[in-house]
Amino acid sequence: MSESFRQLLRGLPDFPDELPDFDPALAPADPAELFRQWLQEALEAGVPQPNACSLATADGLGRPSSRMLILKDIDDDGWHFATSRASRKGKELTGNPHAALNFFWQPLGRQVRVAGAVRELSREASAADWHARPGADGSDNPDWQLYAIRPREAEFWQARHDRRHIRHQYGPAHFS
Fold first, then answer.
1. pLDDT < 70 stretches in the chain
2. How far apart are CA 172 and CA 96, in angstroms?
3. Beta carbons of 62 and 92 less than 8 angstroms apart
4. Maximum alpha-carbon separation in the chain
5. Would you say 170 and 154 are in contact if contact means Cβ atoms under 8 Å apart?
6. Residue pair 81/55 in contact by the 8 Å Cβ criterion
7. Is 16 in a helix, a strand, or coil?
8. 3-state SS, residue 23
9. Structural domains in the chain, sorted by start
């Protein structure tokens, strides 16, 4: 049974026949600008919810966990996301304020990974985010927290059918 499951997994299709070109030599110096370009291309390609990403955190012992959430913004503070401080991810971020985001746009054969230190944004910004959520009823949620990842690294990955995938990395010098 295990071998047939392995064969099933190996036989699954991976990427569409047509993949976009990506030349790292033409990439902007600012990784946020390249992200915005790729997000726009994902929208134009009809990728559902291209602002959804996996957030990876770890507890105080380094045991990882990940889950899907929505990117809220990118600005000088970093890459924004929100959650309850009382949630597992909120507790993990309190004990270990480092995380990674991963975006995957399968129809384009692209993913973007961003990792770095996480900080809490202001109570005012957190409250404004809570009140802007769909279905907000005007009540407050003191546990709701808007966070920002200050990247130390970002990687843009473009699939290729010849398996010579393109990786374009930004390091600490790009995030001043």
1. 1, 176
2. 20
3. no
4. 55
5. yes
6. yes
7. coil
8. coil
9. 27-174 (2.30.110.10)
